[in-house]
Amino acid sequence: MAGKKYKIGLVLSGGGARGFAHLGVLQALNEAGIFPDVISGTSAGALAGVMYADGYKPEEIMSMMNSNSRLTYIRPTVPREGLLQISGIVRILKDNLRAKRFEDLKIPLFVTATNLNAGKIVYFSKGELINPVIASASIPVLFKPVVINKVYYVDGGVLDNMPIKPIEKKCRIIIGSFVNPTGPEEDMGSLIKIAERSFMLSMSREIAERSKKFDVFIAPLELRNYSILDPEKSREVFDLGYNATKGKLADPETRKIFGI
């Protein structure tokens, strides 16, 4: 595999509050001596990815992001461009991110967002940092778009929920962490719930085929029992990612890939 720029690449999917599982994945990988050299993330994956790329450890990110109330992250707003405000996440990033630009990060990072005007995917990796990350996590209808250089951007999961493309040909090994499995859902009693469900189904399309692109693919099915808008069970979600990764690393084929 000569000529590859990075040894290990990590791709982190979207999934709202289920993104705490990404931190469990990172914790288990790090404990095994596995550290990504480049990260590509969408939505919740962009949030976890930017904090890790800024030099924070998974448990440190848990402490910063953890909350017993969804209102810490999102608040109802007047439904003009979005049903909820994402101001809590903006505050967490502004208060804790040391890097101001992508170039300042300790690990190279690609952040995926959807250009709403042009209807195409964009992979940010240079320049100002916070706005692309917030754009990447701005679920359509639920959150208002983020305007960057007069262009409207929304969640990258609309068009690419497993953004392997920016690093696909640059890494010897690529790990995928997918936190958006879907199952049956009976509760459709609110506009927010309908919007959440519609977006989750959109993000899960074609995932079986996409998963074949990864050398190691981690996707805890139990996450389908957790809401993407509820951070109250963040530790349980973290543990699901952690245990799924520990199980994957115990597999002889996986150990052979990493040489452990």
Give an account of the 3D structure:
By secondary structure, the chain is α/β, with parallel strands linked by helices. The chain is built from nine helices and ten strands. It has helices at about 20-30, 45-55, 60-65, 85-95, 130-135, 190-205, 205-210, 235-250, 250-260, and strands at about 5-10, 40, 75, 85, 110-115, 120-125, 145-150, 150-155, 170-175, 215-220. The strands form two sheets. Strands 1, 2, 5, 6, 7, 8, 9 and 10 form an eight-stranded mixed sheet that branches. Strands 3-4 form a two-stranded antiparallel sheet. The longest helix has 16 residues, at about 235-250.
In sequence order, what are the helices and strands, one letter per element?
Answer: EHEHHEEHEEHEEEHHEHH
Task: State the helicity in percent bands.
Answer: 25-40%
Number of helices: 9
The average pLDDT score comes to 85
Q: Specify Rg, calculated over alpha carbons.
A: 17 Å
Decide which structural class fits the backbone.
alpha/beta
Shape: globular
Number of strands: 10
Q: What gap, in angstroms, lies between the N and C termini?
A: 18 Å
- Strand proportion: 15-25%
Main β-sheet description: 8 strands, mixed
Q: Unreliable stretches, pLDDT < 50, 5 or more residues?
A: 68-85
